[in-house]
Every structure is written in structure tokens, then in C-alpha cells.
Amino acid sequence: MKGSTQESAFAFLFFTLFTLSIAGDSITPTQPLRDGQTIVSPNGTFELGFFRPGALNKLYIGIWYHNLPNRTYVWVANRDDPLVNDTGGGVLRIDRDGRLALLNRVGGVVWSPKGATNVTNPIARIQEDGNFVLTNSATGALAWQSFDYPTDTILPGMKYGWDLKTGLDRNMTSWRGPDDPSSGDYSFYMDVHGSPQFKLFENSTLKYRTGPWNGLRFSGIPEMKTYDQFIFQFVQNPTEVYYTYTLKQSNIITRLILNQAGVTQRLVWLDAQQIWNIIWFAPMDPCDNYGKCGPNGLCDTNEISLCDCLRGFEPKTPQAWYLRDVSDGCVRKTALACRGGGSDGFVVVSGVKVPDTSRSMVDRTMSLDECRGKCLKNCSCTAYGAADIGSGSGCVMWYGDLMDTRTYGDGGQDIYLRLASSDLDDEHHKKKLIGVVVAVVVVSSMLLLGSSFWFVLKRKKASKVSRRGTQNENNPENSTMGMDLPLFDLSTIVMATDNFSNANKIGEGGFGLVYKVPFFIL
């Protein structure tokens, strides 16, 4: 009986310790994490532990949503260094130098985080925002965090971009497949050349870009203005350049991902339907494909052919262009003057995703007028625009060919395209001709309308006269109605004609004799 009691007490103690190990939120030098155990964030939003995806005999450390019915992974530690055929499982622990390390069953280090430094009093925690951090438990100083090393997901509060001091590039890389978290063919990262923008690559092939931040949103994502529950922020200074987002309501669950098919998606969890709802994705349409219309081309989904040349440009190879091979793009109709600006000028191209800014120059202190003047002084400058459309300030100048420009029905911005004087005159002539055509059409329409109105009135008047004549014929008593002739009795007529005297007769005709009478008698 006594032995049974001791065994029960030991079992209870073991169960309690095991429960604590999977119910806590931290790993310490004396409390590692083993295969089959997990740690959970303070309010139960995220969970970290070991997992084996699909039928693969590979073991990974990952983070997923704790309370969602279908496990959704947001980070994988050892995506390219899994434990393979390791029947003994693995252990994630803090070594004696204060660094995280994933060990196999024989104690070999399989994975250790990049950028981690030695830490005194180390502790590793999974936070409520999904960030797995290694800190000094006494001072709280941060030594390493998973938010600096995304896999295929950007969560609210993450910095997505560059630490320019350390060279740290926070970017997304897709999974290899639905059950294979190893690095796939697609990557989505920030290009900091010129005006920074995010670019999507399939291996080394550029597939899509967001366009630069224009003070309100990314130039190529006009849908951002409709997300009133999101707070977007873009930070650019000498030490870092990044994009981040937060939510106005903390109960909204959302993530930005790059899936294994190379599509960037923003998803929101719908609790009532228990599904992830896609509220945005890219590439979204043919015009999102990078350089769809070639250099100096303009893509428009409202046009059957999709592609046209920018104003003042024409197809470089017309025959290929009309066969829908637009890869060569467009060239200028007339070369620029390039003599301190000379007679060159600008036309506005409205409502567009601005051209690729990789080779652009940005000056956020310059006014738009100053930007125009500076562009005219540089022969290579082909267009300019505002860096911040919210305030209409700042300057972006493009050099050389303009790539990947497209139109939007709503939400695009304006750029000012440099043209030679003759092309500006052609544009003026076209506008003048359009004005003349419109005027002629308006005047012709008014004349036609007036003529039609006159004709209808005339027809109505003729119809009335015809009806009146018919009525008079059908009713002899009324035959004299409406006539302006006076009626006289016979005695008056006899007296006036002197009893129908021949002296008063002045003629005769088909209606009888005609007599003259003194005017005063009538």
C-alpha cells in the first residue's frame, strides 16, 4: 500500500512537471524543449514546438497559431536543416554559452540561429505577437529574435526590410511545397536602390514589384487605401528602411504570406466561417507581370491588346508589336533636345503605377517645380514625379527607359513625361483637333435637334388644319367658322349693288358675277 502511494505521488509529480514544460512560454538552460513538447505564448495565441509535415520523415521547429483548428505555420527555424530519420527526436536547448541550439539524438548541433550572440542569464520565450526571442533574463536585453529571420510570413509588428548598419535583410521565401517548408523558388524582398520597393523573384527572374512607397501606400497596391482596419508604416533613415503594419483592433488575426506558387497574399481569419479569407494578392492581373509591355510601354487591362506606347513613343518593332510580341517595347518618335532642356517639355501621365524606380533619383526636400527644372537640365532624365503624393512634395526622377508602367482605374498617381517640342505640338494639335470635333458635333446636334423640332411643329399645324377642314365639310353649318369674312343679308346686298345693276358689275367667273359696292355700305 505504501509502495502504491509512493508510485502515485511520483506519477503525479511527473505529470505536473511534464504539464508545466508544455504549458510554459519559455526555454531555459535547465529546461530544454523536446520532441512532443511545446511552449505557448502568454495569452495563448501562438505555440512553438516540433512538427513533422505530411508524410516526410523530417523534424522541424516551428511556430503556429495555438487556437486555430487547422495548424497554420508562421515560422520555421531549421527549414533547410531538418532532423532526418532521427527516431530519438530532437532537443532545442540553450547551451552553456547562452545560445540556442537544435541537437539530434546523439548531441550533434543541427541548427543554431544566425546573428545570435553569447548571453548571460539567457531565456528564450514565445511572445504574444508570435516573436520567439532570446534575452538576458536580468536586464531584458535582446540577443536574437525570430522576427529578424522570416520564412514565408510577415506578422503584424514585424519589420520587413533592411537593417542598413548590420546588412540584415528581412525577406520572405516560399515553401518548396504544401508539406515541404524548405526554401522554395520564390522570394519577396525590398530593393533599396533608387526609391525602395518590394520585388518578387522566381529564382533570378523578376516577376512583380509593388512600386515605391508614395507617402500613403505602395504605388502598385492602390487597394491599400481600402484597408481601414490596418495601420501601414514605411520607415526610411540612414540606419534602416522597412515596412510594417499593425491593426486597430487586436482581435483581428491576419498575416502576409508568399505561397509556394509564387503569389503574395494578405489573409484575414474569419472566425464564424473558420477559414482564411484572401483580401489581396499579387500578381493579380496580366499588367502586374513585370515589364508586360516592354520598355516605355503602358499596360492597361481595359484595352483588348493590353499594351500601348507612352505618349511621344512608338513601337520599336511595329510588325512584332501588331503580332502581340511587345517585348521590344517602344522608342521615342523624336529625340530630346538635350541642351539644358532646350525646347523639351512635359506631359502628365495620370493614374499610373509609376515606372521601376531602381534607377531613379530621390530627393525628399525638393519641390515639384524644382524637380522639373533639375530634370530638364539632365539629358538622361526622362520623367519626374512627386515622392509624397499626400503632400505633393519630394522629387523622384527617372533616367533611361521607363519599365513596368501600368494604368489604374482608381488609385494611381501622376508622372510627368519628358517629350521633344514637336511631340508636345502634336499633343497640342490633337487636343485642339479634339476640341474642334467636339464643337462641330455639338453644333450639328443642336441644328439637327432644332430642325426636328420645327418639322414636328409644322406637321402638327398641318394636321390641325386638315382636321378643321374635314370637320367643316362634315358640318356645313360650321363651314364659315374660323373665317375672317363678314356675313350680309340679301336686302343689304341688293341695295349695295343697286339691284344687281350692270353698271356695278365688274366681272364674272366660275363662282358667278362680281359686283362693286360703295365701301361705306360694308
TrEMBL record:
Reaction catalyzed: L-threonyl-[protein] + ATP = O-phospho-L-threonyl-[protein] + ADP + H(+); L-seryl-[protein] + ATP = O-phospho-L-seryl-[protein] + ADP + H(+)
Broad enzyme group: transferase
Signal peptide: 1-23
GO biological process: recognition of pollen; response to other organism
Domain Bulb-type lectin: 24-147
EC number: 2.7.11.1
Lineage: Eukaryota, Viridiplantae, Streptophyta, Embryophyta, Tracheophyta
Parts of the chain that traverse the membrane: 433-457
Designated name of the protein: non-specific serine/threonine protein kinase
Domain annotation EGF-like: ranges: 283-319
Pfam family, one: PAN_2
Keyword vocabulary terms for this entry: Disulfide bond, EGF-like domain, Kinase, Membrane, Receptor, Signal, Transferase, Transmembrane, Transmembrane helix
Organism from which the protein derives: Acorus gramineus (Dwarf sweet flag)
Gene Ontology terms, MF aspect: protein serine/threonine kinase activity
Apple domain ranges (all copies): 338-420
